[in-house]
Amino acid sequence: MSAPKPSELNASNIVDFIGDIFVHCGDAEYLGEPVTMAQHMLQGATIAEQNGMDDEIVVAALLHDIGHFTSEFGTFSMDDTEDRFHEEAGAKVLEQFFPTIITDCVRYHVAAKRYLCATKPSYFGRLSEASIHSLNLQGGPMSDDEVAEFQKNPNLEKIIQVRYLDEAGKHPDMDTPEYPHFAPAVQRIVDAHMASLES
């Protein structure tokens, strides 16, 4: 059976749809980093789990870059001269099935990089060459007005947590569980969200 298309997604197949992305697209190069796309996302989720973070953070870290595979513009490369807005593409696919806390972490993880570079200058030192390149395409550090506006987001703390996990998930020799390990947590969040919409 072929995987559903984004237009065919529903609460009963979204978890398998995401799993199919990990299986069939996960070996794609991750932006010039020493890990694949799947390794990057699995590492963020694993680090979150190992540190006792809640399911929302684990799942948000797992899914934060899913838009690289759902964007009509394709994945980022070091040769790009324009941003591909993968964060918005990912959030749009997920927002039908996941609560705002998850979609905000996906939608704003790029903005969080710009925010941290503006408010914590030492954060810039954490960035890889590829991350600096994408930062430049994404607008560079935020202005003071952008910082003030971003700080109004009620999910700011968790968005920032996922951003740090994003930077942490780039180890070429880290062992992680595969997607099926995390799938039950993904399903729990989907089920709880869909139930909340029906109540």
State the domain count: 1
**Shape category:** globular
CATH topology: Hypothetical protein af1432
Rg estimate, integer Å: 16 Å
CATH class: Mainly Alpha
| Mean pLDDT across every amino acid position | 87
State the helix count: 11
Q: How many E-type strands?
A: 0
Corresponding CATH architecture: Orthogonal Bundle
Largest sheet: none
Give the low-confidence spans.
72-78
Succession of helices and strands:
HHHHHHHHHHH
Strand portion: under 5%
Sum this structure up briefly:
The protein is an all-alpha fold and 199 residues long. The chain has helices spanning 14-25, 37-50, 55-63, 67-70, 86-94, 100-107, 109-119, 129-137, 144-150, 156-168, 179-198. The chain is globular.
How does this structure look, described?
- The chain is an all-alpha fold.
- The protein has a single domain (24-193), classed as Hypothetical protein af1432, CATH 1.10.3210.
- It is 58% helix and 0% strand.
- Helix 1 (14-25) packs antiparallel against helix 11 (179-198), helix 2 (37-50) crosses helix 10 and helix 3 runs parallel beside helix 6.
- It starts with 13 loop residues before the first helix and ends with a helix.
Q: What descriptors fit this protein?
A:
single chain, mainly alpha, Hypothetical protein af1432
